[in-house]
Protein: PRC-barrel domain containing protein
Amino acid sequence: MTEFSDSDEGKPVVMGDVKVGLITEVERGTAYVDPDVSITDKLKATLDWGDRDDDTFPLREEQVDEITDDEVRLRS
Structure:
């Protein structure tokens, strides 16, 4: 089970070699990501972030491959 903590706030979120956003908030173990302006609509759709008007998006446990000291890596 992926468990986020306050220490994960500010970490970049990457998928492969692409930075997809930044964790801006962790609330009750859920990380919320502010998407990078450069990610494509196709990638947003892959992450299920395409049809929302929110500024931040929750990361689902099944999306996360690894949490390191420096970044959060998503499954590709």
Notes: Strands lie at 12-15, 18-27, 30-35, 57-58, 64-67, 72-74. The longest helix spans residues 41-46. The two ends are 18 Å apart (CA to CA). Helices lie at 41-46.
